[in-house]
Amino acid sequence: MNLVDYENLVERLRKLGREGGYWDFKKEYPDNKAELLLDIICMANNQVDRDAYLIYGVHNYTLDIVGVENDKNRLKLHQLSQFLYGKHFAVYVPEIDLQTIKFGKHEVDILVVYNTNHTPYYLENDYTDKEKTVLHGVVYSRLNDRKAGTSEATPYSCIEHL
Question: How far apart are CA 40 and CA 22, in angstroms?
Answer without folding.
Answer: 11
